[in-house]
Amino acid sequence: MLGEKDGQITPRLQNIAGILREAGFKPKITRQIVPWLLTHYAEIAALVGALFKAGSFTMLANDSALLKEALLAAREGLAVCRARGINPMSLSNIRLIYLPMFLVVPFTKRAYKSEEARLVFEGHVAHANDEMQVIYHEVLADGERLGVKMPYFQGFKEYVEQSITAIGVS
Predict the structure, then answer these.
(1) Which of 122, 151, 154, 164 has its CA at 20 to 30 Å from residue 27's CA atom?
(2) Between 3.50.50.60, 2.60.120.820, 1.10.1040.10, 1.10.150.50, what CATH number should domain 32-162 receive?
(3) Inter-CA distances, 149 with 45, 52, 71, 77, 153, Å
């Protein structure tokens, strides 16, 4: 996802997208990059919180109860986005997260079986652990400031704060 803060589609942005296409990537240009980033930020914060609680990506990916907590926490993060005035449903295929849990948990579990998913999660934490902690705390603080109830999200706080510099790889 690519965009300018002010929502304009500039020649610079189109040039960057062209370079990425030539390199084999599939960039998408949006006029709503800031709302998209804040929504993505909220989702990642919840999922990383669950990852810290699980101790490894493999443990998270195989634990239906913890995946349910993660998805409920992600919904709370998206509620923070709504409280900020962002409509997450208008930005991506986020609708899947609002399916009933008996559907979305097995779907997520299946998606997390891929090596690519594991590498993304472990890469986020291994190479940006401090940033992941900041993201988590910022979303939580915004939720508190905006009056959003976040019991699932809050439930990961002790694990985020205890996290070590690298999550277990398995």
Answers:
(1) 122
(2) 1.10.1040.10
(3) 16, 21, 15, 10, 9
Q: What are the residue ranges of helices labelled H in 55-95? A: 57-61, 64-83
Q: Where are the domains of the chain?
A: 1-31, 32-162
If we measure between CA atoms, which residue out of 21, 53, 24 comes closest to residue 121? 53
C-alpha–C-alpha distance, residues 54 and 168, integer Å: 9
